[in-house]
Amino acid sequence: MESNTYVKGALLLTLAGIVSKILSAGYRIPLQNLTGDVGFYIYQQVYPIVGIALVLALYGFPTAVSKLSAESEELSYKHFALPIFIILMGICGIASVLLYVNATTLASWVGDENLVTPYKITSIVFLFVPFSALLRGIFQGKSDMKPTAYSQVGEQLIRVAIIITGAFMVAIYGWDIYVVGSLAGIAAIAGAFVAIIILLVFIKQYRHVPKLDKAIPWRYYVKTILTFGLIASINHMILLIIQFADATTIVSGLVAHGYSSQEAMEAKGVFDRGQPLIQIGAVFGSAFGLALIPQVSRNVTTKQFHEQINRGVSLSFYLAVGATVGIIFLFPEVNKLLYQDNQGDTSLMVLMIAILLSAMAITSCSILQGMGFLKRTALIIVGSFMIKWAANYILVPLLGITGSAIGTIVSLLGLVIVSFLELKRNVVGIRLRKHVNWKALLIACLSMIVFLIAVDLIASTETFSRFELLLYVLFVSFTGGIIYFLLLVRYQAFSDKELSMLPFGSRLLRNK
């Protein structure tokens, strides 16, 4: 019964995470449409910092608190909640003060002095993290996932509403474009406040807490929060730290490439168009595969666990390859549909390879983390960030935004290779090369590509209205996806057991 509750809670959190990530990626499209590439650039210069605070509040610190909560039979305010809150506030308070004090230095570093105020506003977000992280951790430690799921979606809805409303004001009333950067911080603060309110509604059931008279294990609390809070959260920051590297290097690199400051900002905004697509692709590419690997840390030594890992990794690979190939061949139409022009097509098509690599990186790093290799996984991810930063520093002055796209691919490829080598070293029998049906994958990919090219040759999208282009993209992507999936099934890329777990799997099995 307890295990069933745990699985249901984990599925609820996964669903809430997918909804939130889709919202997080989706709102950036109207944001760019309303404020232009410069407005989008400004937002993306601030977002990685906001994103780090959100990850700490949603994944990092709650994971640590939930571990402590699960280990504590009685949750005393004096001996549990208060000391943990003090530790969290100490860590987040230091981060907030450092960001506020160094806002001018950071703005100068990224090459835009007008970002000082947005950075200072964003620093306040960290002061809300201890409240939501503590409450979420307490609930999760007692296997109650509803409060975290509801607060996550509520927080994201408020953020999206404020950002889109502010973008409308910028577009309609001509507000200063740098208001968009401040909105990133303001929306995050408002969202965090709403999340705390939602969590407090659920906390009523924990009002009766006994008073215990025992020593507070400060050292153990600090060690757990640092290990499981900060280090473990890095796995959820893979795409964020890539964006942070872009925020600190692209504009200055483009200026060295020969752009004016204004042209560099616009080009950075064009490059950032790829981020929502990568995020959505990576979510779908990794979420379903990871869903097949439940309770990783509890089954490390079993044969069933190894089979689940191979099944999850191969499914992630199939989905991510299909999404990547499809978006690359459809990208000119997608770019025009979402962003109303075709700026940056070539560079962004190169960048779309990141969908496959990020999905595989998230999958492999999540498995490693679930197996307990927290520090090792964190070091691998930090190494990927350093590769990305160095690649941008070298390639952007030479190749412009295409250099940054290549830098992203190189850094993620390195992350995938190293993380899979670690998996291969620690999991008996994991062999992606042997568990992927390459013949089926090649036939499915080529057939989808032929279909996409044929439709593109027949249809003249130049004469389409935006609504007609939407219908075209939806039809072609859906039909191409169906062709890809059915051919994978036809050429036995999936086992009967894997098919039975998919929607309409029983029907597919009957028709094999």
TrEMBL record:
Pfam families found in the cross-reference section: Polysacc_synt
Record carries keyword Hydrolase: no
Places the protein is found: Cell membrane
Keyword Ribonucleoprotein tagged: no
Keyword annotations from UniProtKB, A to Z: Cell membrane, Membrane, Transmembrane, Transmembrane helix
Source superkingdom: Bacteria
InterPro entries xref list: PG_synth_SpoVB (IPR024923), Poly_Biosynth_Transport (IPR050833), Polysacc_synth (IPR002797)
Spans traversing the lipid bilayer: 40-59, 80-101, 121-139, 160-178, 184-203, 224-245, 277-294, 315-334, 346-365, 377-395, 401-421, 441-459, 471-491
Annotated membrane topology: Multi-pass membrane protein
Protein name: Polysaccharide biosynthesis protein
Organism: Ornithinibacillus xuwenensis
